[in-house]
Amino acid sequence: MDIQKLGTERNAQLLTMSGRFPSGKMIGLHEMYKDGWTEEEIQNELRKQSGHRRSDPIGAADYLRNKKEETKEENLLLARKGKSESNLVAKKRENEAAERSRQEEHEKIWKDKTIGRLKSGGLHEAYADQLSDVEVKGNMTFLPRGGILVKTNTPDDIDIQFGIPPETIKDSMILGVSVPKYFVVSHEMFDRVGGTSMAEFEFPAYFNFFVLKRKVTIICREGLSESIKAIFKETLIGPDKEDYMFDKDFPPGTDPKLFPNFWGEGLCLDPARKNLKGEDLLEIREFDAAGQATVGTGDSEVKIRFLANKQEYRVYKFDKKGKREQIATVAEDIRRYKEDKLGNVKRSKLEYQPLTTPEFGVTVLGASHGFDPAGSTTGFVIWVNGKGMVVDPPPGSSDVLKKLSIPDRAIHGIILTHCHADHDAGTFQRILTLKNVKLYTTTTIFNSFIRKYSAVTGLDRQFLCGLFTFMPCLIGVPVPFHGAHFKLFYSIHTIPCIGFECSYGETSMIYSADTNSDPSLPTKMFEEGVIKEGRRDALLNNALKGKHTLIFHEAGVPPIHTPMELLANQPDSVKERLYLVHVSENKVPSDVGLRVATEWSTMVLQQYLDLEMKERMNIKHTLSATELFQHVEDEEYEKFIFNSTEKIMVPRDTVLFDRGEVMEHMYYVLAGSVLAITDSKVSQGHRFHAGHLIGQEFIVDEGNVAGYKAKSETAVILYKIKIEAAKCVVHKREALNLLKNLADLMKSRTWDAFACNLLFREFTIREKVDLFNIFSEEITIEPEGRIDCQQRGCLVVDGIVHVLMDSTVDSLDEMTNEEIREEAYTDTKESSGGGKEGVRKKGEATGVVPGQTGRERSNKRENLSPADRSRKLIELERNVRLSKVDLPGFMSGTIELLAQRSEASINLNSESKKTTFRGNHMRSAYVDEVGETGTMILDINSLILRDPSLMQVEAISNTRVRMLDRKAAINFMKHSPGILVKLLDSFMSTDSKIVC
């Protein structure tokens, strides 16, 4: 093995796994050397970690000798240059220490000022949870919702933000800084794990243009300009007239006089839109051929440089003499997808509050708008007989639903009202992170939504449509939903937008959606010939006119929203049924009889009269949302389930059952979190949240003996169900097969391996079982044993492996100095776009082959010092991983293949290169990696593209693995496109335990 490669900064931590030390910190050769470990101590520690029995398991002696030679050379250089050089070094270190101290003081002052400002305004408590997510490093502020703000401290006080997640301007408002004018959009504009756009520039552009009276500048990589323009067109201007689908939006035979005039109505709301174009709000600049972009002028000039070989941005400013100063370094992957200790994404302020769903009612997820830092954007759930229809879910609403103990299966549909970011961002997030989503809207709005998010994600439109089920709705035609009926209408807005009314028996509610309900507007538009008589009459019969039990009406900022005065002047008979949404609570006068819908509250419009019947209906609706009980008949609930189910509350840290215990009950989690603990030494356990069944596998397990301990992590509310009763009703073959496979999975080591993988542990039970079924039986590999990954994947079930290249590949250790120099030059030329295609096939690629430490070295290398050689190797190793790939293009092609033709080959577009992926995104097989339990090892090129694989897996200790062949993987992902999106994104994450 080439130890100098292991000495690079990237691979210094290879052989030690998290959890091996009390602090949980990974320690590698580089750290050991810096900390002054002796050669014997290093060898003993690495031998203990890796299980090797070699005298020098990974060449620690070679590494130490090289480092000693480098240090000796550096000291000799200092001696030659004399004390002046030594003084310069000391001065440099002194300056660095002073700079660190200044940055720490800056961070403390910044936080103190921010908290003081919020306290003075009475807002500290409301924002305390977001402030805790703020991290400041020098000139960089890591924003709570994601993204990084760089303060340049130039005379013009230029701020530059990298990454634009949804609602990002609220972070600026909370922190008391101006909304930036300059934004840098990464090559990957979408976070596929979190399901959110990282290029949500819509509201920053509106705020800068309408409030700050200036234009936003978006800086992006070459080729993204057209996508950004397409996104902004759908939100600012709306669809073109030829994209209006009135023949599919309205019932056949509808009088055209009822059709809206979207563009004309928008102009009547806001005449300033007549000559408004996207370029008036947005300037788009692409990095030049050298990877540079300039903002500001004169003394405030700032340069942003993208370094492809490091996958990072560097920000520079200049003094009056033109001297350059680097002020920030930002990684291209600026997503901040956080998890708390319970595995939830970014906890909301809401604690666990189990919700009993009404027979008919509304739960409010958010009631504000995109410019309110204190509130979530408007969205809510309409409940009908225990089934939920979500309207415009706010970003992150899945966490709120989980805290309310609402399982994903209880949500049976989403209504999308229109394609502004404060309404559609959360919708697409749920589509990407959930399965079997049904989307209700009109065809015109649906097509606009698909065009927008195809541009955001770079994914094929046909593939996006396959992620969910589109339920096309006709204006004015009732849409049935579990005993209720929704009836849609087009409101007045700047782009196509729908409101609706929902009726259930004698009870009903209506939602205005974004609109202006001023009755003078339809009359004016009719008189000016903008709309016909039928459309005018429909608009005059607005949400404030009906006799509905509940009215949700927007109250945003005029002229495109309804004036507060109009709502304040409504009669008391309307106000007593009226709740305002899309408004900041502090903007509503306290003395006019108006009220804002309260976040996370539930309004009951109709409730079960019989309490016993109510509880029985809750049991039925709750359990029927699970895959296990979804086919159980009503009479079976009456005969077996109702009398065998008990609702219990369990305090924190309570053991529900222990390993070896004979099981008589299974559990359904209504609220809280339960940890299932096995005897595994590597897994931290499996967590069950609201909507999960615990112990269902015992229905088909004759022994009924628990193989794990279940303990409450929080206070939990559960349904306790007798297993014998469940056995009487679960008789569908599909359900029984699921349980049998689940029982096999939970008895295997693969169950713990899934828990160790950040991606797989978030899969549903069904997804885990399906994934388990496509793996082969366990294979044991003895130390130093190898298996190849030719069109196969490998899951490490127990043990540690090296991921390495086939031994037929030339080793860098066997190359001459001239060959190294030539290789580095060629790779640099190719990675910058010149030279031949950047593909390294068998026999012509250069990579490091572990296991060659003792091999005789070539005498031709003697004239190159260890330090110079190490630097060349680092340079070469970087360039080998940098063949240019149009990643979105590749992913689009791959997805199209998996979704449509599993056996076809992929035709990449002519501008893209092939195979090797960028270093910090896809980790190339040329990089020596280590995989521990839970690591999934795939050669994406071999598995998907069927290129010859050079990848092998070598066991460090006795290791058990499961293999995954190409055909099984493709069939699995072809039928689960949402999983494919997560999997592809995990290839590009350094934390996912997916090695490519």
Mean pLDDT over the residues: 74
Please tell me how large the radius of gyration is.
Answer: 31 Å
| Spatial sequence of strands, sheet with the most strands | 1-2-3-4-5-8-9
Please give the alpha-carbon distance between the first and last residues: 20 Å
Number of strands: 45
CATH class of the domain at 360-606: Alpha Beta
Which class do the helix and strand fractions yield? alpha+beta
The parts where pLDDT drops under 50 for at least 5 residues are 1-30, 49-60, 117-126, 336-348, 806-867, 869-928, 985-996
Overview of this protein structure:
- Its main location: cytoplasm.
- Residues 854-870 have a biased composition (Basic and acidic residues).
- Residues 628-757 form the Cyclic nucleotide-binding domain.
- This is Cyclic nucleotide-binding domain-containing protein.
- Keywords: Cytoplasm, Hydrolase, Magnesium, Metal-binding, Nucleotide-binding, Repeat.
- The chain is of the alpha+beta class.
- Among the domains are: 3-81, no CATH class; 360-606, Ribonuclease Z/Hydroxyacylglutathione hydrolase-like (Metallo-beta-lactamase, Chain A); 611-747, Jelly Rolls (Sandwich), CATH 2.60.120.10; 779-836 and 843-848 and 864-995, Jelly Rolls, CATH 2.60.120.10.
- Helices cover 33% and strands 20% of the residues.
- It is built from 32 helices and 45 strands.
- The strands form ten sheets. It has a seven-stranded mixed sheet with strand order 1-2-3-4-5-8-9. The protein has a seven-stranded mixed sheet with strand order 19-18-17-16-15-14-26. A six-stranded mixed sheet has the order 20-21-22-23-24-25, with no helix packed on it.
- A hairpin with a 7-residue loop joins strand 3 (148-151) and strand 4.
- Helix 29 (887-900) packs across helix 31 (966-974).
- The protein is globular.
- Residues 1-30, 49-60, 117-126, 336-348, 806-867, 869-928 and 985-996 have low confidence and may be disordered.
